[in-house]
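Subject: Re: docking follow-up (pyridoxal-5'-phosphate)

Dear J.,

Thanks for your patience while I sorted out the input files. As discussed at Tuesday's group meeting, I've set up the holo structure prediction with pyridoxal-5'-phosphate included as the bound ligand rather than trying to dock it afterwards. The sequence and the ligand SMILES I used are pasted below, so you can double-check that they match what you have on your end before we go further.
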Amino acid sequence: MNLDELYQEVILDHSKNPRNKTELENFTHEAKGHNPLCGDQISIQIIMKGEEISDVKFTGAGCAISTASASILTEAIKGKSKNEIEKIFENFHNLVTGNKTEEDLGKLTIFEGVQKYPVRIKCATLSWHALMAAINGEKETSTE
Amino acid sequence: MPLSDIKSDFPTLNQKINDNDLIYLDNAATTQKPISVINAVSDYYKKTNSNIHRGVHTLSQEATEKYENARKKIAKFINSNEKEIIFVRGATEAINLVANSYVRPLLKPKDQIIITEMEHHANIVPWQIVCNEKEAELKILPINKKGELVINELEKLINEKTKFMAINHVSNSLGTVNNIRKIVEIAHKHNVRILIDGAQAVQHIPVDVKKIDADFYCFSGHKIYAPTGIGVLYGKKNLLEEMPPYQGGGDMIKSVTFEKTIYNDVPNKFEAGTPNISGAIGLGTAIDYILEIGIENIAKHEAELLNYASEKIRKIDGVDIIGNAKDKASVLSFTIENIHPHDIGTIMDSQGVAIRAGNHCTQPIMDFYSIPATARASFAIYNDKTDVDKLISSVRKTIEVFR
Ligand SMILES: Cc1ncc(COP(=O)(O)O)c(C=O)c1O
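The structure tokens for the complex came back this morning:
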């Protein structure tokens, strides 16, 4: 097992210095994601203008993988439409679960290593589940 | 038996995990099984398999004898009488049994049950359920920063409304060994009955239920080198006799008509249906194994290991031990600054070191220390200093990954 595949430089960097980790003023939607297995909690706040997510921030506490994933998520989806985000999440989910992805995921591909660590898949997808819940007007979601 | 030979008795320990020798340090979750226990279970299915208490044929008699023999061994192991030993699925079921059959009929609105801040969820939730149903209150005996019970507070908590107490002997996430005799004494002074959850005690320290004067005492087989799905509830005979059954079915009755059913005597009254026969036999064999080594020797060996590990880990920058009670057994919970326990667990696993990361089913303890989780190494008879050295080097490796 090669640890470096999981704990890539970029992932470590984002876990130590997470981007957009703060409360968002004037958010329109927010949802909390909870992983009961390890207690990780990530909240996502977004500003949705029509179909477009014009801004996104996150707060919460989690492991390196869930923190880095949330941080990179905020960079990857800002300015994207609801439909585009659904596509990205589907692809991202396929990536971390070891299934075929249809489009190039850009920076998100650094999470490819997660597929070798099945118990960590939920860490990588926690913030995504919270984001989808927020977009769909739900308040809370759980990985279980 | 010299302790150095013990590893070879446990087949699971002899394997590679991620190209490294397995170092198994998740014993508080469950222990590995010695070959004698594995053989006892498989021999039972190869040679004896039959239902108990209900056959005149030879195999059924043999199965019954083995099952009841296991009960005798357990009774002797904790210094009780075989009539006071009830086979259950594990500590969880034992606690639920007492909550339902002893405590529920007793409770009135505004009555109180006392548990502690360091309980496993298994010793919290069953009490919450009966309290909710009966509009009774759950009172919590607090812990201090070292992870010890603040026993002085007990005299303030306990009063005429207190109907029952439940507390663990040894904490699964802090390792604290509680002063059970003192606590039982206080409870009894106020005429309050008490259950001791010994799920983390019997495998590490000598337990004498008579000396403790516990009203109920329970543990799980799988944490004491026996199979999963078998456990023990000890109860004082007079209490067990006055309790209504927990479940109804075969074996727990003397006679059944549609008008009236006469229940069997204890302990059978509490063992409805076909029990986990092979599990009980396995548990009896596990106790033989422990007695062969000697529980005093086990306690001494594990205490040495825990001290050795604690001293070494304490020297590492950024590492904090969670749980620093004066009297501890087996468990070393720790955090590393800026590294989440989940990541610690994954990185250690890549070195073959199996520890647990999480809240260990003790969320209130995590809240008390304001941490989401800990990493936990827990020791058993087969662990040695080499295992500890491997633990320490993989803690260092974890810190390196995140540097
Ligand atoms: C202190 C304590 N009590 C109760 C339990 C529950 O045991 P089981 O899941 O075997 O019923 C455990 C197991 O982790 C424990 O450590």
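A couple of observations from a first look. Chain B has two domains: 6-32+295-398, 38-291. The pocket of pyridoxal-5'-phosphate is lined by residues B 90-92, 120, 122-123, 168, 172, 197, 199-200, 220, 361 (CB under 6 Å).

Let me know if you'd like me to rerun anything.

Best regards,
T.
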